[in-house]
Each structure stands twice: as structure tokens, then as C-alpha cells.
Design a protein that fits this description.
- By secondary structure, the chain is of the alpha/beta class.
- The chain contains 9 helices and 16 strands.
- β3, α4 and β4 form a beta-alpha-beta unit.
- α4 crosses α9 and α8 crosses α9.
């Protein structure tokens, strides 16, 4: 029997080397050129073939050599590789060397784990039949990278299973989060444009104040959400940007707002969009303005396959012990992993990476510091699941 954990622990130094290199050199969505070059160089040295997909994405393939397996399967393992426009403040000796860019969501760890997973699987080809595809995906933070890769290349054709994992500090290091149903909410971004009429700040009666109309829309969005959302089918709507006016004595003639909605069901998504479209037009009109909403960057909710849920729970318990395998809470954030699972059985796990320090536990913040010691567990889990899905037993 293979000792997956020891195989992974033997690569801990390499995991740290890769992760810290990527952490020092973060790149924004669709700009991951150095990251992709590093991944390709590593794969070249490991003797693993690959191709470029989606500009800065990489798809590598490992073919098993186990004989006597009828109808060999194909498994995709996915890691995202992009960083965020955040100035790091962790004080780590391997902090970002790019001003204003930081791996503040753990994607450096995801990429490191997938590379090392690939190296181990490549050495275990005699243990499985079929194919493992390693997908290094750009632009998850834009929720556009997965769709771009899938639309540009048929690498998902014939895939039987797709697996992914995300480091999260709300769970302690040494644990694995599993969930039988929806894990991540779906999401969609919106841009609201308000058109009024500029005027002198001392003569508001001669103007049509777009800023005032926009302010009313911000307040009403939360009121509408509270009164129209079924608590058993939750949703979140957040306006995060508001730009209006160019001078302190000129009434704004235009206003632009943007934000996101989050939802689990497609029914809730449709209802929320309809409500916002209607209220923006009506509220803007009540201030004599014109209002419109543009929607983009839609991503479905992440829903785990029931058969894979049972398989993952059993395998993870064998590997880690029952106490380490925990029920993951549903997350209102979104992840474009969901695009891989539209026509394929998929499963997304949460890899506990918490250190117990609340100031360093929140992703998308300058202090985010997940525990690197979680990575061998993530690798061992990936390797075990891939091998056992492909052994044909």
C-alpha cells in the first residue's frame, strides 16, 4: 500500500521553495507570464508534457501505465495561479517584491501543491491507468480564467472527474473540509450608471444630482435585499465602488457604482437581477435621472458531486483520520471552479491553513498568512484521490 503522506512530506522542502518563489513574484489576472514560465520550467525538469491554454494557463498530462484496466478514466486536478492588487504587510522574509501586488488568497500555495502532486504522480505511473491532467489556471480573481481556458481548448473533453482545493484559515492547519452540496455561492458583477445634469454647487435647483440618486440606490439595495430575499434561499448584494463628481463646487452630472451579487440558486440570481434592474431605473427616475445596470463576469455556484463526496470522505478519512475530516461551511464568496463541473463530476475541498491569528486569517487582506504546513496534507490528498480514482479496482 502506498504511503501517500510520507511521499508528500518528503517533498516539503520543494513545496516551500516553490511557494515562496511564487509569493515573491505575484502577478495579476491574465498577467501571469513569469508564473507560467516558472511552471513550465518545473514541468520540463520533471519530464511532464504540457501545453499553453488561455494565454497564461498551462495544462500538463500524465499518462498511467497500469495494465489490465478496462475503460481507463481521466482526472483533472486544478490550481489557480493569479494574485491580487494588494500591498503586502505580512513582514514575511519572502514577501512580495512587486509593489501593490500580493498572493493574498493562497494561489501560490495551490500552484506549489499541484506541481509537487504532478511530480509524485509522474513517479507513480505504474500504479494507475488513464490520465491525470494538471490545470494551472489564470485569472480566478477575475472569475474569467476557467471559462477562457475551456472555451479555447478541448482539454475537458472526456474528463471523468475534476478535483480542486482551496486553503482557508477559518479551519485549522491539519484539517480538510468536505461538503456534500453547495460549497461556494455563484456570483455576478454589475456596473450602475446614473445620468443627471451638472450644475453649480450653490444652485442645486439648476442641476439634476446624480450623486444623490446614486446614494439612494446604495441604501435601497440593502432594503430591497432584506424584503425580497427568502432566508432559506440566501443572497448577498454589495456595492463596493461609487464615483461621482470632479470638483467640490460642481454638482455631479454622472455617477458610476459597481459591486457584486452572490447567490446559490439560479432562481435567486434571476430574481435579484430583475429587482436591481427595476429599482435602479425607478429610483434614478424619481430624482429625474436615468439609471441603467450592466451585468458581467457571471460564475455559477460550486456544487460538489454526491458520488465524489462519499469517495472523498472515505479516502480522506483513511489518509488523515476521522477527526481531521470536517464538514465545511458554505461560503458566500465565489470561485470559477464551477465552470469545470458543468458537464463533469467535480469536487472542491477546503484545506485548513489557520494559524490561530485572526489578524492574519482573512483572505484578500494585506496580512493574510496561511500556514505553509498544510501543503503536504493537500498534496497527499490530491495524490491519493487521483491514484485511487484511476486504479480501476
Amino acid at each position: 500500500m502506498l504511503d501517500y503522506m510520507n511521499l508528500s512530506l518528503a517533498q516539503q522542502e520543494e513545496l516551500l521553495r516553490i511557494r515562496r518563489h511564487l509569493h515573491r513574484h505575484p502577478e495579476l489576472s491574465f498577467q501571469e507570464f513569469e508564473t507560467a514560465a516558472f511552471i513550465k520550467d518545473w514541468l520540463d525538469n520533471a519530464g511532464i508534457p504540457y501545453r499553453t491554454v488561455g494565454g497564461t494557463g498551462v495544462v500538463a498530462e500524465i499518462t498511467g501505465e497500469k495494465a489490465g484496466v478496462a475503460a481507463p478514466k481521466t482526472v483533472v486536478l486544478r490550481a489557480d495561479i493569479d494574485a491580487l492588487p494588494i500591498t503586502e504587510n505580512t513582514g514575511l522574509p519572502f514577501s512580495s517584491e512587486k509593489e501593490g501586488v500580493m498572493h493574498a488568497c493562497g494561489h501560490d500555495m495551490h500552484a506549489a501543491m499541484l506541481l509537487v502532486t504532478g511530480g509524485i504522480l509522474n513517479s507513480l505511473r505504474a500504479e494507475f491507468a488513464g490520465t491525470v491532467k494538471l490545470v494551472f489556471q489564470p485569472a480566478e480573481e477575475f472569475v474569467m480564467g476557467a471559462a477562457k481556458m475551456i472555451n479555447e481548448d478541448p482539454f475537458m473533453d472526456g474528463v471523468d472527474y475534476v478535483l480542486g482545493t482551496h486553503v482557508m484559515c477559518h479551519m485549522p492547519c491539519g484539517t480538510l473540509g468536505v461538503r456534500s452540496a453547495g460549497l461556494f455561492f455563484g456570483g455576478e458583477r454589475f456596473q450602475i450608471h446614473i445620468e443627471g445634469k451638472e450644475g453649480h454647487g450653490a444652485q442645486p435647483h439648476t442641476a439634476i444630482d446624480a450623486l444623490l440618486a446614486g446614494s439612494a440606490i446604495v441604501s435601497n439595495t440593502q432594503l430591497t435585499l432584506a424584503r425580497e430575499t427568502n432566508v432559506l434561499d440566501p443572497a448577498v448584494a454589495t456595492i463596493c465602488m461609487f464615483h461621482a463628481g470632479n470638483a467640490p463646487n460642481v454638482i455631479a452630472g454622472e455617477a458610476d457604482l459597481s459591486g457584486t451579487i452572490r447567490f446559490f440558486s439560479e432562481k435567486r440570481r434571476a430574481a435579484l437581477k430583475g429587482s436591481m434592474d427595476r429599482s435602479v431605473e425607478q429610483i434614478a427616475g424619481s430624482f429625474d435621472c436615468k439609471g441603467s445596470v450592466i451585468w458581467d463576469r457571471y460564475v455559477p455556484a460550486v456544487e460538489n458531486d454526491p458520488w465524489l463526496d462519499a469517495f472523498v470522505r472515505k479516502a480522506a478519512t483513511e489518509l488523515l483520520g476521522a477527526d481531521a475530516v470536517r464538514e465545511a461551511a458554505q461560503l458566500t464568496s465565489s470561485d470559477d471552479f464551477s465552470w469545470y463541473t458543468q458537464n463533469t463530476k467535480g469536487y472542491y475541498m477546503i484545506l485548513g491553513s489557520g494559524t490561530g491569528d485572526p489578524e492574519r486569517s482573512t483572505p484578500h487582506t494585506p496580512m493574510f498568512t496561511p500556514d505553509e504546513n498544510c501543503m503536504p496534507l493537500g498534496v497527499a490528498t490530491f495524490v491519493k484521490l487521483a491514484v485511487e480514482l484511476l486504479q480501476g479496482e
